[in-house]
Amino acid sequence: MYEFHARRRIEFSDTDMAGVVHFARFFIFMETAEHQMLTGLGVRPGSYRDASGRSFAWPRVTATCDYLAPARYGDELDIRVTVERLGRSSLTYGFDLSCGPVRVAQGRITAVCCALEEGGVMTPVPLPEALVERLGQPLVG
Amino acid sequence: MYEFHARRRIEFSDTDMAGVVHFARFFIFMETAEHQMLTGLGVRPGSYRDASGRSFAWPRVTATCDYLAPARYGDELDIRVTVERLGRSSLTYGFDLSCGPVRVAQGRITAVCCALEEGGVMTPVPLPEALVERLGQPLVG
Amino acid sequence: MYEFHARRRIEFSDTDMAGVVHFARFFIFMETAEHQMLTGLGVRPGSYRDASGRSFAWPRVTATCDYLAPARYGDELDIRVTVERLGRSSLTYGFDLSCGPVRVAQGRITAVCCALEEGGVMTPVPLPEALVERLGQPLVG
Amino acid sequence: MYEFHARRRIEFSDTDMAGVVHFARFFIFMETAEHQMLTGLGVRPGSYRDASGRSFAWPRVTATCDYLAPARYGDELDIRVTVERLGRSSLTYGFDLSCGPVRVAQGRITAVCCALEEGGVMTPVPLPEALVERLGQPLVG
What integer pLDDT is reported at residue D23 of this predicted model? Predict the structure, then answer.
């Protein structure tokens, strides 16, 4: 199974008045690690217009996070990304976030590769072939 | 089942370059609706110190969101909050987010009532009795 | 001078580990109040495509904030917006943010009305005439 | 004059629907670069409790940013931090943010070293001596 590792230092603005990282920030940490993985695989993440003028985006269909221990300002997170499921248009990522030996969170995000039409309509399109080849995992469903 | 409704207008800073609300913002929308519900029930949400000097917080143990349709700048969201499960120290909220007749997302968050000790250690404590009474639902587990 | 008032409740996610509102959030508070003002004047704020298919945005050229007192979770802010200067393409807003009798911050933002061309190039265009009429202030420069 | 350089990759969640980095994010970029500088100088930034149990924080008294060119998703920012003014309790930082040869923004932030008392009251205290020595600049005012 393809696996990618990212690192990230917790910033002051990631925290809230309880003195720990705000729970919604973990979704940003996961998304950015996913984007670093895709970039490393030669795929454009985010939202973009290709050479032919078509626009694409990767909207999420589901996102979940289990919080196991608090993360704090200054901590360095290790983020392990795996591809749990490869569909025709969709990717399900698994995330493990640790701070040293302590696992702080685990999450899962399913994103869909979409064409972004005029008026903002999003239509699923097949995953980029190059990505499927690079991941080397069987497509499911 | 106790039910609460909140409304919220999408702001420019909620959006990303795909032209729609960034997926992580939905967790903020859910949290704020939860806090409005708790405040209305006479319970202090967030993180606070009580009259006796003890500090409390409501850390999340799990948060999930399914995205059904994009939400856009200027949209007004209706957020319906229900209490899906009432534990000894924990609450599981369900959220339905709609924009007019369109359901844009549904989510679930489990939060735990904790005492916040010196050094930032968080220890689960029983839910405030007044809250349990107000909700009028059986405790589970 | 045209004057607009907005109100906003501080959310948990606006805070940081120092126990107060994070300083960067005040810029979001100011921007949203500005947008509410423009919407009330019949002008489309944010970034949009008009009926003829042209896209527009209001990028900022400068933003500043002086912090006078901390704002805290649950506080309700009164935000007074004035138009300090009306240029051919630009607007300079002044902001006073108070919490009850306490002034917590004052800021200033200059935004420029721009056409958003292919490739993301932004070109200043004259302010909407209807806006200039509604504000009833002399153009400067 | 003391000078520090930081680098930062623009993330998807830094953008807004105009397709560029949201203006308020630049204040986060500046703050994080400041914190990296302070950490490198052996000073604890953010908000913390020292060995004797006293709490400290660095609230901002003013923050400003001039926007010179848009920054976009995937850009790598070079952030140059200088200390423009060293007061008894306060530091004024200057920031230059560039993307390759293009200057995208310049900013200034004044922060005050404060003791954080019970009840959240913040009282200015002299800057840490070690910091003043390391910066090697004359104190003003």
Answer: 98
Residue C135 belongs to a domain: no
Residue D17 located in a structural domain: yes
Chain D residues near residue A28 by CB distance under 8 angstroms: 11, 13
Which chain A residue shows the shortest CA-CA distance from D120?
A: A17
D94 shares contact with chain C (CB less than 8 Å): no
Contact criterion met (CB below 8 Å) for B60 and B110? yes
Q: What is the CATH number of the domain that holds B130?
A: 3.10.129.10
Mean pLDDT lowest for which of C131-140, D80-89, D104-113?
Answer: C131-140
Compute the distance between CA of residue B46 and CA of residue C74 in angstroms, rounded to an integer.
9
pLDDT, tens digit, for every residue of C10-29?
999 999 999 999 999 999 99
Structure confidence by residue, pLDDT tens digits, C84-118? 999 999 999 999 999 999 999 999 999 999 998 87
Number of domains in chain A: 1
pLDDT at A117: 84
| Interchain contact, B62 vs A57, CB within 8 Å | no
Give the E-state strand segments of chain D in sequence order: 3-9, 47-49, 55-57, 60-67, 76-86, 90-99, 102-112, 114-116, 122-124
Residue of A nearest to D33 (CA): A11
Interface pTM (ipTM) of the complex?
A: 0.95
User: What's the token pair of residue A96?
Assistant: 């493990």
Residue C47: strand pairing partners: C57
Low-confidence ranges of chain A (pLDDT < 70): 141
**Which member of A57, A62, A66 has the closest CB to residue B67?**
A62
Closest residue in D to B73 (Cα–Cα): D17
Residue A26 belongs to domain spanning: 3-129
**Model's pTM, two decimal places?**
0.96
Determine the Cα–Cα distance for residues C95 and C33; give it in Å rounded to an integer.
9
Paired residues of C62 in beta bridges: C110, D66
Residues in C touching A24 (Cβ below 8 Å): 13
Shortest distance between the Cα of D20 and any Cα of chain C, in A, equals: 8
Among all chains, which residue has been given the structure tokens 């932004």? C122
